[in-house]
């Protein structure tokens, strides 16, 4: 396994573990959407790495589109304020929509997005989250249908996830050393 970046405290999911998770999720999604021609939506920018992998693990017909929202402004805490930076190019009325997300923390971002997309009358709308952050005594505002893994309540980076736009290119998911952002 590759040596961890010096700013990484510990590796939570290695490249090999991620491969297995993505393969499993691809199978689950393919099974459920075999004849539904889903529109798979990734939320930029964090979800692109997971999207690129999971779409190749889905073997039924599907199409993709992208959205960009901003909720974390270069920081580490969820603000609950969500702004649509880029909307979809595809009409979703009557479509089976699957939102692919990198990480579910408070779930506020997705809860807002789900409400907005629901108002466009899709046939269905579900979430596939690569990881869900476990916060004791707190449930995220939305419930993903597909979950890759659970991670502890720490700030994680890599595999698409950033801190101030850095670390997205790390091939694994790791906990960022608090000294980097404190
Ligand atoms: P939520 O609205 O609290 O669920 O936050 C969702 C978004 O916040 C994710 O799509 C990420 O962009 C970002 N985020 C939440 N937790 C982390 C983290 O540990 N590392 C990097 N980004 C995070």
From TrEMBL:
The keyword Transferase applies. It comes from Lancefieldella rimae (strain ATCC 49626 / DSM 7090 / CCUG 31168 / NBRC 15546 / VPI D140H-11A). GO terms for cellular component: cytosol. Its EC number is 2.4.2.8. One of its GO terms (molecular function) is nucleotide binding. Keywords: Cytoplasm, Glycosyltransferase, Magnesium, Metal-binding, Nucleotide-binding, Purine salvage, Transferase. The keyword Glycosyltransferase applies. It catalyses: IMP + diphosphate = hypoxanthine + 5-phospho-alpha-D-ribose 1-diphosphate; GMP + diphosphate = guanine + 5-phospho-alpha-D-ribose 1-diphosphate. Its main location: cytoplasm. Residues 14-163 form the Phosphoribosyltransferase domain. It is found in: Cytoplasm. This is Hypoxanthine phosphoribosyltransferase. GO terms for biological process: GMP salvage; guanine salvage; hypoxanthine metabolic process; IMP salvage; purine ribonucleoside salvage. The lineage of its organism: Bacteria, Bacillati, Actinomycetota, Coriobacteriia, Coriobacteriales. Belongs to the purine/pyrimidine phosphoribosyltransferase family. Its cofactor is Mg(2+). Pathway: Purine metabolism; GMP biosynthesis via salvage pathway; GMP from guanine: step 1/1; Purine metabolism; IMP biosynthesis via salvage pathway; IMP from hypoxanthine: step 1/1.
């Amino acid at each position: 396994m590759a040596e961890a970046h010096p700013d990484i405290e510990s590796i939570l999911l290695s490249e090999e573990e991620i491969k297995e998770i993505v393969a499993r999720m691809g199978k689950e999604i393919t099974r459920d959407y075999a004849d539904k021609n889903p529109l798979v939506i990734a939320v930029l920018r964090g979800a692109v790495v997971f999207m690129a992998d999971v779409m190749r693990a889905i073997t039924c017909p599907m199409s993709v589109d992208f959205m960009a929202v901003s909720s974390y402004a270069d920081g580490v805490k969820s603000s609950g304020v969500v702004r649509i930076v880029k909307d979809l190019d595809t009409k979703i009325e009557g479509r089976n929509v699957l939102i692919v997300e990198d990480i579910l923390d408070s779930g506020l971002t997705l809860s807002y997005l789900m409400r907005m997309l629901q108002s466009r009358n899709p046939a269905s709308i579900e979430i596939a989250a690569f990881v869900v952050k476990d916060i004791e005594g707190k449930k995220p505002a939305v419930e993903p249908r597909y979950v890759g893994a659970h991670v502890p309540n720490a700030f994680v980076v890599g595999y698409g996830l950033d801190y101030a736009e850095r670390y997205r290119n790390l091939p694994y998911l790791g906990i960022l050393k608090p000294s980097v952002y404190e």
